[in-house]
Amino acid sequence: MSEAPESQAPEGPAPTRRTLLCGAAAVLAAGGTLAVSGCSSSASDSGAGSTAKTPVDVGPASAVPVGGGTVYREKKIVVTQPSEGQYKAFSAKCTHAGCIVDQVKNQKIQCPCHGSLFGITDGAVLDGPAPTPLPEYTVAVEGGNLKVTPR
Predict the structure, then answer these.
(1) How far is it, in rounded angstroms, from Cα 10 to Cα 12?
(2) Quick check: 111 and 13 in contact, CB under 8 A?
(3) CA distance 127 to 149
(4) pLDDT of residue 70
(5) How far apart are the C-alpha atoms of 29 and 62, rounded to whole Å?
(6) Which residues pair with 149 in a beta bridge?
(7) Which tens digit of pLDDT belongs to each residue from 28-65?
(8) Which of 70, 74, 120, 135 could disulfide-link 80, Cβ–Cβ 3.0 to 4.6 Å?
(9) Which residues fall within 8 angstroms of residue 119, CB to CB, at 6 or more apart?
(10) Is the pTM of this model over 0.70?
(11) Rounded to an integer, what distance in angstroms lies between the CA atom of residue 91 and that of residue 34?
(12) Which residues pair with 76 in a beta bridge?
C-alpha cells in the first residue's frame, strides 16, 4: 500500500499578516460593520491632515435680531447680533452635556437641559453647570446671508 504524497505549499510568497488583516477588514467593511484604517501601503494618503473648514450658509442676516440671536438647530450653530451689524457665531452644543441650545432670550443663549446660560457677545458661561464657553466660530455676511465657519 502506498502513502499519499505530502501536500506542498502553493507557489509564490506567503501572505503577510498585514495582507490577511486588510483582507478580513475589507470583507467586514463590505457588510458595513467595521471601518479599518492603516491598510494603505502609502505613507501619504490624499486628504490626510486636511484642516480646511467649509463655510456654512445659515440664511439671511435679517433673521438675527439686534440684541438677540437665532439658533440653527439642524446645523448646530447659534448666531447672535449683540449690536447693529455685529454678528457672532458659536457652536449650539452646550459644553455641559452636549444638548443643543434652544433660544436666545434677554441677551443670553439658553440651554434647555440643565439651565446653562451663555453670553451673546463671547459665548461665556453666565450660569452653569456648563464648565466652559461655547466654542466661537467665524461669521461673515455675504450677499445678505450669514456664512459661518467652525474654527
Answers:
(1) 7
(2) no
(3) 26
(4) 97
(5) 46
(6) 138
(7) 444 444 344 443 343 444 444 445 689 999 999 999 99
(8) 120
(9) 107, 108, 109, 126, 133
(10) no
(11) 30
(12) none
C-alpha cell at 93: 452644543
- The label of the residue with cell 447680533 reads 81
For residue 106, give the nearest of 143, 65, 53, 73 by alpha carbon: 65
Grid cell locating 19? 495582507
Return the sign of the alpha-carbon dihedral for residues 141, 122, 63, 113: positive
Count of CB atoms situated within 10 Å of the CB of 94: 23
**Do 138 and 52 meet the contact criterion of CB atoms below 8 Å apart?**
no
- Count of H-run helices and E-run strands, the chain: 1, 10
Is-contact 146 61, C-beta < 8 A?
A: yes
Residues in the chain: 151
Q: Who has greater pLDDT, 138 or 47?
A: 138
Cell 495582507 belongs to residue? 19
What is the DSSP code string of 60-108?
EGGGS-TTEEEEEGGGTEEEEEEETTEEEEEESB-TTT-PBP-EEETTE
Residues 74-92, mean pLDDT to the nearest whole number: 97
